[in-house]
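ok so I'm stuck.
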Amino acid sequence: MAVRIGFAGTGGIAGAHLINLVRIPEAEVVALYDVDRVRCALATRRINGQQDQAARPGGQEPRKLQAKIYTDYHAMLDEAGLHALYICVPPFAHGELERAAIDAGVALFVEKPVALTMDLARQVAEAIQRKGLVSASGYQTRYSEAADKARELLANRTIGMALGFYLGGMPGTPWWRVQAQSGGQLVEQATHTVDLMRWLLGDVARVYGVGALRVSKEVPNYDIFDVATTILHFTSGAIGNIANTSILGSGTATGAPSGVHVMAQDFRLEVWGTTLKVVTAGRTVEQRWNTNTMLAEDQAFVEAVARRDPGRVRSSYPDAARTLAVTLAAEESARTGQPVDVPKV
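replied:
not stuck anymore, here's the structure
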């Protein structure tokens, strides 16, 4: 069947999902909601322009985005006959959209971070589970062959420790640098690294974080940490550390460590995106794949909704809430100076 899909929020990350969905035969994007209808029109024009550019001369006419625009999400949920809804709004805007969609019995794809408080994340996760809805979140690194191979290689090894890195510059979006609106870099951005660490090593029991605002003090409305590091105690007994910063702009992050580095006896691997490096005694093997991991993520969600098979999704909303729990606990620890037990979801 064709999966009828709506979007709440049409800026930024929504565009990456939209271009994938117009290229997935089973997906039919029928509705776009945004508080500013101009953003919906711009997103439509941008996606259809990309389709025209990708078209081959003399080939089949490219599929276009032809969705109805809404500025009232209640009207969209009432009228559009949706099977699924992508929620691609800023972190501070989560909550009412999810509740309304769940009440309507609509499957949810919620971009990370799924909330800024564990109370909200638990409420939504429990409501999804009560309704038996398919859900997903935007942790696309789980869908790479590199992550698959890393899990396979680690399956029978005792992992000693893992190091995670998210080292980059400051995004231009104004809300990103405001703690109350984004949750900080670890919650909003470096969450991808934390999630991959969970995917490879399992759940985290306790964290101890430190953070500081060192370089970006003169940036208007900047009140998040611009440097931070967090110790992770995994339930398996392994230990980890993640370092994140937003001070490496203008290409200065080039060549810096990235992703997740895992150590076992006489064995080390590094994985991020579609690249995997494995180091053993006297041998280093590096592999790269060409998979579009976000396309694979979107394909899995569409198939899960069409076949009512949640098992096709690698990061459900409840699982994404467990990653959120780690990052929020780390933020709390960095601000209180005390170790924090990661709450259950």
